[in-house]
Amino acid sequence: MMREPVVVNGVTRWLKAGESLNQQNEAKEPTVPVLREEIGYVLRDVRQRQGRTLREVSHDARVSLGYLSEVERGQKEASSELLSAITAALDIPLSVMLREVSDRIAVEEAVQIPDTIPAELAHRYAQQQQQGPGYNRGDQLANR
To answer: What pLDDT is attached to residue 141?
Structure first.
């Protein structure tokens, strides 16, 4: 069976050749993604892309090597403080890591994430730009 890579919101999935993401999502039963596993997958992927070892990252994050390994394998729930230390050691913003996790979960849940800005948000953004640099979101909320 031939497989080909398909990238959705920066997440690469391997699909059967000639099969679309929608066809694959319709064919499989809905699964419930486990957040700790998705976080672990993303952390391991980032570390490996950087060519770093568990030992290096655990030292920089001041986390035991065994615990970091368990987090990467999705066996341990990492606290927000621990995730912050690990992402700092990997030199990536926590928000970027969480976004990648979110995108992976969206793909798993077969949620279609638009690559464009909805018209309503684009219109609001244009209004904000016209009001200039002194514009404050709090002003908009107060005027409702």
So the answer is: 47
CA quadruple 102, 106, 111, 114: dihedral, nearest 10? 50
Q: Say what the pLDDT of residue 37 is.
A: 93
Q: Could you give the CA distance from residue 115 to residue 5 in angstroms, rounded to a whole number?
A: 18
Interval 14-26 mean pLDDT: 57
Does residue 41 have a pLDDT over 90?
Answer: yes
| SS3 of the chain | CCEEEEEECCEEEEEECCCCHHHHHHHCCCCCCCHHHHHHHHHHHHHHHCCCCHHHHHHHHCCCHHHHHHHHCCCCCCCHHHHHHHHHHCCCCHHHHHHHHHHHHHHHCCCCCCCCCCHHHHHHHHHHHHHCCCCCHHHHHHCC
According to the model, what pLDDT value does residue 92 have? 94
From the options 2.40.40.20, 1.10.260.40, 3.90.1300.10, 2.70.70.10, give the CATH code of 3-108: 1.10.260.40
Domain boundary assignment for the chain: 3-108, 117-144
Mean pLDDT of the 94-112 span: 85
